[in-house]
Amino acid sequence: MAEYIPGYVGTVTKYVFVESPVMTPGELALRAYEASEGVLIKETCFGLQVTGEPEAVDRLIARIRTFDPMHIFVKDRGFPPGDPRRCRANLGGARPGYLGHEREFRILRYITRGLEEVERRGEEAETPEPAPEKRSGITIRRLQELIDEES
Amino acid sequence: MAKVFIYPATSLILSDLVARFGHKPLGAALGIRERIQTAGVDSPPLQITPEEPKRGLKYAAVEVPSGVRGRMAIYGPLIEEAEAAVIVTDADFAFGCMGCARTDELILFSLRQSGIPILELKYPTTDDEGVRFVAAIKKFLAGLPNGGAA
After folding, report:
1. Which CATH number is associated with domain A12-121?
2. Counting one residue from A and one from B, how many pairs have CB atoms under 8 Å apart?
3. Cβ contact (<8 Å) for B132 and A4?
C-alpha cells in the first residue's frame, strides 16, 4: 500500500446548487468569482463547488446566498474538487452521489415555495394543518349502483 | 447553534435548511472529510482503514458485518455529537447494498434510542406539502435548546 498524502488539508468544500428562473450556474459562477477572495471555485452544471479556508468559504457562501436566497441551496462535501476517487473524469459516468442530488433537485421547487411562504408569513407563522386527503375512486354505494345498472 | 444530525446523511435539502435556519448540519460529508484529510496509509476509496470496523464495535456487535461497523465508525461519532435530528422517512434514494441498508437501519435505531429531539418528515410532492415541510423544520429548529437564529 502506498503512503497517502492528503491534499487541501484544513479546507472545507461546499456544493452550491442553483435552481432559479433568473440565474444560471454560469451567471452564478461569474458573480461568485467577483466575491471569491481567493476561494477556489469550480463551475458545474448545477452550480458551483467552493473550496478554501472555513471562514473564507462561510463568508463567500453568505454572499452567494444573497444573490437569490430562495433558489440557491448549499451543502457540505467531503472530497475536494477533482479528487481522483470521485471525479467522473477518472471514473466515467455520473459522479457517485450525483444521482442523489438529481433526485432531490426535482423537489427543490417545493422547498423554494415553502421558503417563500414561510418568509411571507413571518416569525409568528404556525405549521399549517395538512389539507384533508382527497378521496379517490368511487364509493361502495356508487359501485353497487353501477353494477345494478349494468345487470 | 445546535448540532443537528440529518438523515439521509447526504441530503442537500436537509443540510441547506438546517444551516439556513442557523444550526450546524451533521452529515456524511463531515466524517468523510475528516478521513480523507488525514495522512496515513492509503486505503482507497475513502481512506477507510482496518481500524474503522474496530471503532465501529462501539455501535454494533462483533457479529455484525464489518461493512456496517466500518460505516458506523463514520456515523456513530456524529450521532453521539448530535443534539437533535431531522429524519426524512421516505427517502427513496437512500438505498444501497446490504452494508448501506443495515447501516441506515442502525442509524435510525441509534437516533431514536439516543433520546434527542427528532423531527420525522416525508419529502414534499406538492407546493402545499413544501410549505408544511419548511415550516415544520423551521419550527422544530427554533425550539431547540441552543436557539434558532432563523
Report:
1. 3.30.70
2. 139
3. no
- Mean pLDDT, residues B57-68 taken together: 90
> Are the Cβ atoms of A127 and B10 closer than 8 angstroms?
no
pLDDT of residue B46: 62
What are the domain boundaries of chain A? Answer: 12-121
Q: What value of ipTM does the predicted structure carry?
A: 0.90
Counting every residue written for chain A, the total comes to 151
The three cell numbers of residue A18 are: 442553483
Q: How far apart are CA A29 and CA A51, in angstroms?
A: 13
Q: How confident is the model at residue B55 (pLDDT cuts 50, 70, 90)?
A: confident
> What domains sit in chain B, N to C, each tagged with a CATH number?
3-142 (3.40.50)
Residue in B13, B29, B41 nearest the CB of A77: B29
The answer to whether the Cβ–Cβ distance between B133 and A74 falls below 8 Å is no
Q: B134 vs chain A: nearest CA distance in angstroms?
A: 5
User: In this predicted structure, what is the pLDDT of residue B150?
Assistant: 46
Amino acid at A117: E
Name chain B contacts of A107, Cβ cutoff 8 Å: 13, 123-125, 130
Burial of B97 from C-beta contacts in 10 A (0-12 / 13-18 / 19+):
exposed
